[in-house]
Each structure stands twice: as structure tokens, then as C-alpha cells.
Amino acid sequence: MTTTICVATDFSARADRAIDRALLIGEQTGAKVRVVHALDYIEADNADWAKLDRKMRECIGDATCETEFAYPEGALAHAISKDCKDQCADMLLVGPARYNSIGDYFLGTAVDYVLRKIESPVIVVKQRARSPYRHLIAGTDFSANSRYAILEAAKRFPNAQLHVAHGWRVPFQGFQRDTYVREEIEEDARSAMEAFMADLAKANPALANATSNVAKGNAYEVMAREFDAYCDIGGEGLVVVGSHGESGFRQAALGSQTSDMLRYLQNDVMVVNTKAAES
Fold this sequence. Notes:
- The chain is of the alpha/beta class.
- It has 2 domains: 4-124, HUPs (Rossmann fold); 135-278, 3-Layer(aba) Sandwich (Rossmann fold), CATH 3.40.50.
- It is built from 11 helices and 10 strands.
- A 10-stranded mixed sheet has the order 3-2-1-4-5-10-9-6-7-8, sandwiched between helices.
- Helix 4 packs parallel to helix 6 (110-117).
- The radius of gyration is 19 Å and the shape is elongated.
């Protein structure tokens, strides 16, 4: 059975980057790329289908992988997430946010809705697809959720080198001035990382060559430094985060650290719905 990758477009230049990345993944993996343009009900009633198909063909250019077009109807976030779910899509790619554009549905409050409604990972594409993903830069808080997110990303990009990072901070740092407190926190984090990496390798032996780093700083700062350390160009790296975690919100909202990475990192970010890890 052919794997399906969905990519959302509003025909903007930013969405074109997501399409280019989806096509590159399709060419590498043999997956079918389903280009999705959602229409509200009024637009659908008055749609010029031939014109829409022509615009879609312009978006994909001379694609060498299998492609198809879809025009789900309804509220954008709901229509796109439902289409992905109905197609059992392996992943969904979207462009970065722009005020009042389709991107806001994925980087604003409705991103929570999308990630709750579809189990597929979502890649927010910010960089041009000039290279396959050669590096996966994954953050971890040592939870089952982050473990699940990393394994799902590695399964989809088995040829990419995995790098796992954890940022540690001293709680109430203004009051915890003793050196031994910082040293104990760092040592605990390093021990936890060692056990975490061993567990990853046990679950997927191909990850035995993965690298890891424990560094002082918040998750966003550490991930940004790790990316710069391993990736010469932005398009060759993919940041991997889970939609929930021990330090994130575990109810309806997207975790705050994940939201920060989506908002501030200039690199492509894969957000993995980790609800399955909790069942």
C-alpha cells in the first residue's frame, strides 16, 4: 500500500516551500503526495475547478512522484485535518504562519485542534527544500511522550542522523546559588539521558549511533544551538518535538515549549502527536 503525504496550500509563496519539501520526500520514499486546498462552503459553491486544478499543477511543477489534488470543504483547520485523517496520511506539511492566512490555523490556537484531531505528525516548513533532511534535532524531557516522538520521526526519516538534546535549568536560580546544586541537577540530567538513549537504541537498533547532549538553558535555546552545531544549511535539518511532555500542557493546549519552537525557530519543525504514547 502506497504511503500518502498530505501538504496544505493556500497558493502563497510560503506554502510553496511546504509543497517542495513534500515532493522531495515523495521522490525519496515513493510516497504519494496529496496537495490539499481547503475551501469554505461559499467558495466551493462558486469554484472554478479547472482553474483550481491549473493552479495546483503550477504548484507541483514537474514532480516525479505520484500526486493528487484535494479540495475539502468547511472551516480550514477542520477540513484539512479531516482529509488527512480520512486518507490515513503518514504526515501533513504546512507552511509558516502569516496573519489571517491558513498558517494561523497551524501556529495559532487552532494548531491544538489539528494535532488533537489527526494522529499524523505535522511538519511546519520554513526553509527551502534544497536538501533532504540529513539531521534530526530532537528535544527530550525524558518522558514517554518525547520517546514516542523521536521514534516516530526516526521511522519516517531513517537515513537522517539523530541528535537528542536536553536543556536543564536550576529552579529558583536566584535563590539556588550553591555550585553543588547546579552540579547535581546536571549530573541527574546526564544520567537520565544515558538511560534514555539506551532505551531508544533498544526500541530501534539503528539509533545506536545517535548523538546526545545535555546543556544548560531552556528547550528553545538548547535546540537552536544544537541545530547550528550540526546543520550547515537550514534545509538539511528537522527539529522534532512532541505535542505534549512532562513540562508541557497535557490538556487541550499545545505545550508551551513546543509553541515557542514553532514561533521562534527559523527551521523546519516536526510536531508529533504523542497521545498514542499515553494510551
